[in-house]
Amino acid sequence: MPSVRFRARSLAALFATLIFAALAAGCGAIGFVDRPAYGYEWGSDAPLRVAVIDETGGTDWSPAVDAAVATYAAATPHLAFQREPDGANIVITVRRYDDAHPPELSGYVFPMGAGGFAAVYDADGLACNYPPSPLPLNCSGEIARADVYLNDIIPPGPDIEARRERLLLHEIGHALGLTRHSPDLDVGSLMQRYGWRSQVDRGPLVAGSLVVRGRSSRRLRAWPGLRT
User: Fold this and answer.
1) Does the N-terminal or the C-terminal CB of the chain have fewer CB atoms within 10 Å?
2) CATH number at residue 181
3) pLDDT digits over 122-134, tens only?
């Protein structure tokens, strides 16, 4: 009969394996059982209807929001963007904040010092993407809505619009179901997630990050000193 110490070690090893598996599962795209987005039939080849609602206010972030949406729309015919939530599979609301006035989050830990982040929820309101959600094992993967938060402490500079757009491209990628971006995750990853059968031209996107002259950034940084 195994000793108590041996059984304790075995249980600890099993627990660590399960945690590792859960973390690994979050490195590609948010998993799903039935539908990858609210009301969307996997493999239907229908366009994914995405509402992007800009609640940033002012005129500083809005041009970057429009530019990021236009870039995604040009990358594939399978994404159909709209400004109103009615009839959308995924509703993305874009908001601003700063570290001194963090947003109230459901199911997420506020990532202090981040340039921006996305909080993604399924149809039942459960947090889906890790991080900053602590191991969302109960999320169905059926994305219904997402809140994209943009940090106002971005420093000025001649490339500020490009940095804002890169940040939004990255966070919208999370909202569409890509969890942890890397250069090998591009529009093809969204095709796999939603079962799009036809091939599409790969636009200037790699995992929601901007590709400049054919080269992708190994790690997206909207500006030095901040993480996304």
Assistant:
1) N
2) 3.40.390.10
3) 999 999 887 777 7
